[in-house]
Every structure is written in structure tokens, then in C-alpha cells.
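Please fill in the sequence for the structure shown.

STRUCTURE ENCODING:
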């Protein structure tokens, strides 16, 4: 009756072997899970760069209005066309949420840019026809929010930013950058070359 309570050396050996195999399988599975997690967490889903920068300075002098005193009003503005290249390194599409531009001028102040939206493009080109050759030189098509970049592909397009100052401030800037925000991934901040 006590025979079933005692175990032989062979049964102990089989039990030990089974526990050892289970432990090895568990360690290998944990190592694979860590490698996948580490790779996913330490590699951005998107990479971006500013490929080209083209600028159009405009100086507008308004006609003198009757019954006003002083010089004619003047205004400086600068249109900066940045050509962006964004690479989707993931296995899922990227959905662009917003594209913003910032400029840090020489005194350290941060100046946000006004991005020209797709629905304003025709009016802008009618009002500022000098932009046509610059956009032709930029090539491609505009990159806009709500655009989708398929997995493992690269998208290239231009973005127009408008600043309300003279080109001198752009030329003497400390830094400028373009940030692309996505719906489900981290943002990509790209420095604008000088």
C-alpha cells in the first residue's frame, strides 16, 4: 500500500527534467517579450527631416487714406516654405494631427508661425502670385493635417508658414523647428536648417 507514496529515482529525474525544461521555456519567452518591448519602446514610429527651406519676404506699403495724419502704413511679412520628409517605420499607418512651426529669434523670444491651411491655398496664391515659382521649386504637394502615411513608407510634401516680420529676423534666428503631431504616435520635432 505504501508503494504509491514512494517515488523512484527515475520518476524524480523525470520531474526534475520537466521543471528544468519549463524554466528554460519561461526564460526564453521572457527574453523574447523583453526584446519586442525594448525594440518597440526605444525606436520611434516616425522619423522626419526638413529637406529644403525656401523663403519669400514681402514688404507692403498701403495707400494713404484721406483725412489721416502721418506716413503711409507699411507691413512686413515672410512666407517660409519648408519641404518635409516623414518616414513611417511602423507596421501601422501614421495619421497626421497637426503641423506647427516655431522660431526663436535672436533675443530669445519664441514666435509661433501661422500655417497656411489647404482651404486657404487658392486665396493665398491669388493674393501672392510670387509664391507660385517657390512652390514649383519646392515640388510635390502640400502636407496637411488629416493626411495618412501608409506603413513602412515615406511621405514628402511642403508646408507654408507665414510670419509677420521682415526677413532679417529669419536670417538672424537662433533656431527654428517644425513639429508634426500624430493621433496615435509621439510627435516628431525637426530642426529647420539655416
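FILLED IN BY: designer on duty
SEQUENCE:
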Amino acid at each position: 500500500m505504501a508503494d504509491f507514496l514512494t517515488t523512484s529515482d527515475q520518476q524524480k529525474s523525470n520531474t526534475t527534467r520537466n521543471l528544468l525544461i519549463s524554466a528554460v521555456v519561461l526564460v526564453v519567452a521572457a527574453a523574447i517579450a523583453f526584446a519586442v518591448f525594448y525594440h518597440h519602446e526605444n525606436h520611434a514610429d516616425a522619423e522626419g527631416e526638413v529637406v529644403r527651406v525656401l523663403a519669400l519676404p514681402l514688404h507692403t506699403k498701403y495707400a494713404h487714406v484721406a483725412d489721416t495724419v502721418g506716413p503711409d502704413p507699411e507691413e512686413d511679412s515672410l512666407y517660409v516654405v519648408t519641404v518635409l520628409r516623414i518616414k513611417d517605420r511602423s507596421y501601422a499607418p501614421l495619421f497626421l494631427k497637426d503641423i506647427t512651426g516655431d522660431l526663436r529669434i535672436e533675443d530669445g523670444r519664441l514666435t509661433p508661425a501661422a500655417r497656411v491651411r489647404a482651404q486657404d491655398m487658392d486665396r493665398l496664391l491669388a493674393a501672392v502670385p510670387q509664391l507660385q515659382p517657390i512652390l514649383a521649386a519646392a515640388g510635390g504637394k502640400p502636407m496637411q493635417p488629416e493626411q495618412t502615411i501608409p506603413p513602412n513608407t515615406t511621405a514628402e510634401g511642403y508646408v507654408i508658414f507665414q510670419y509677420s516680420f521682415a526677413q532679417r529676423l529669419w536670417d538672424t534666428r537662433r533656431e527654428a523647428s517644425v513639429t508634426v503631431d500624430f493621433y496615435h504616435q509621439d510627435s516628431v520635432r525637426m530642426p529647420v536648417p539655416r
